[in-house]
């Protein structure tokens, strides 16, 4: 699964996810894309599950670009731990997704194949998405 090789700070604040994505909201590489329509956190496991669903659907034809990377650590405290005693340890990595962000791009396949592949990938994701194509 995806995770950064090294980070400057081990733990991060939770922060807020509001507004629209102004970076990564246009198709840059492929002709078809899967675009988020809601704000959510996407784990590295969800990214990998969606990527595998796409590659199996197009049967290793075409080219896929993943436009998101999980760079935010999420911490969890151990089970049955009392309140206090500091913040928990990093457990997994997430990518912050804002509405309008392109998650995956695809090229070298027909429109029907791309739609079917992105529909299968959308089932693996925790937010609503839409299919877009280059004008």
Explain what the structure shows.
This protein has a 4-stranded antiparallel beta sheet, covered by helices on one side. The protein contains 2 helices and 7 strands; from the N terminus they run E-E-H-E-E-E-E-H-E. The chain is α+β, with helices and mostly antiparallel strands and 135 residues long.
Ordered list of secondary-structure elements with their pairings:
Layout: E1 32-36, E2 40-43, H1 44-57, E3 63-66, E4 72-76, E5 89-97, E6 102-107, H2 111-122, E7 129-133
Antiparallel strand pairs: 1-6, 1-7, 2-5, 3-6, 4-5
Helix pairs in contact: 1-2
List keywords for this structure.
135 residues, alpha+beta, four-stranded antiparallel sheet, 28% strand, elongated, 2 helices, three-stranded antiparallel sheet
The spatial strand order of the largest sheet comes to 3-6-1-7
Helix content: 10-25%
Report the major sheet: 4 strands, antiparallel
Q: What is the 3D shape?
A: elongated
Tally of helical runs: 2
The rounded Rg comes to: 17 Å
Number of strands: 7
Low-confidence blocks of residues: none
Instruction: Estimate what percentage of residues fall within beta strands.
Output: 25-35%
**Helix and strand run:** EEHEEEEHE
Mean pLDDT level: 95
Distance between the termini: 33 Å
Sheet/helix structural class: alpha+beta
